[in-house]
Structures are given as C-alpha cells and as structure tokens.
C-alpha cells in the first residue's frame, strides 16, 4: 500500500538509494539529505519542534511517500509551518522530491494531495508553493491539486536569475 508516513528507520536504506539515484542522474531540483553523514531523524525532529535550526530556516514537518509492502521509499515532502519573506518569493510552504526512477508515475500529484491535508491540519489556511518556470512537471503536480498560478517573479538563486512560478490554494 502507498502511504504518506513520518520518516523512520524502516525506509532509511531505500531513502539513501533514492539519494544515490539523484546524484547519478544529476538531479538538483530537490536534495535528499545525506543520511550516511548524520542522523537525519534528529534533523527532522529539530525542524518539527522548531529548535536548533540554521539561520533563516523555519519549522517544518517532513513526510515520506512509501510503498509499505516493499519497504520502498518513493518521495519526500516537507510542510513549512510559516513563511519568511524569502520563502514567500522562492520556496513557499511545501517542498517535495520524487525518487528519480519513479518520475512520471503520478506519485508527485498523490504526495502533494496528501500533504495539503497535513498542511491544513497544521493550521495553514492558504498554501503557497513555488517552482522554477522551467520545471513543467512540478507545475503540473500543483495544478493537478487545484493550485492556481498567482504570478511569476524573478529571483536570484545561487547567483543566477530565474523565473519562479508561485501557486496558491485556500485549504
């Protein structure tokens, strides 16, 4: 069964394999954590409880989309508790990534739909999600979940100017 769960040891090896897939395929749109380098569960706990966060970071809940029957990690999604001015321009309330070998199978749409329910339960009344203008797959995932394009704005990210699509939806 496919389910959205809190990150746990059961799926950790599969999560690390997904990170390896991203590196092998040069994916840079979302970064899975290097679970071999540090305790990612401690990181997730810190974000959930809004403690020991790096500067300019906000509290977040992380979830994994998994195939429970296969102990298989499919994707990760984070729901940020609030927005900074920077996140209002680039990032929004939700960030997500699907394992490379599982792209174009509808998992992004499913995962975002489930995460929107989580966002509502966290007290978010209107969700903002962004993607790069040259990422039509992510735009389609948002549109499939009823988000509406609010606008496109220019942002400087890692020293380059990119156009960002900003989508919103009342929850």
From TrEMBL:
Gene3D superfamilies, alphabetized: 3.40.630.30
InterPro entries the record matches: Acyl_CoA_acyltransferase (IPR016181), GNAT_dom (IPR000182)
Domain N-acetyltransferase: 20-171
PANTHER family: ACETYLTRANSFERASE
This protein's name: GNAT family N-acetyltransferase
């Amino acid at each position: 069964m496919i389910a959205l769960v809190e990150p746990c040891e059961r799926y950790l090896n599969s999560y690390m394999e997904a990170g390896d897939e991203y590196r092998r395929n040069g994916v840079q749109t979302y970064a899975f954590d290097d679970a071999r380098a540090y305790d990612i569960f401690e990181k997730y706990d810190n974000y959930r409880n809004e403690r020991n966060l790096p500067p300019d970071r906000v509290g977040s809940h992380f979830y994994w989309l998994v195939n429970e029957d296969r102990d298989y990690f499919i994707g990760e999604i984070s729901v940020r508790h609030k927005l900074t001015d920077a996140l209002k321009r680039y990032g929004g309330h939700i960030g997500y990534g699907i394992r490379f070998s599982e792209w174009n199978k509808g998992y992004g749409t499913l995962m975002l739909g489930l995460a929107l329910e989580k966002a509502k339960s966290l007290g978010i009344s209107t969700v903002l999600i962004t993607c790069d203008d040259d990422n039509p797959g992510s735009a389609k995932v948002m549109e499939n979940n009823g988000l509406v394009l609010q606008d496109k704005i220019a942002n400087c990210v890692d020293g380059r100017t990119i156009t960002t699509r900003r989508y919103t939806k009342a929850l």
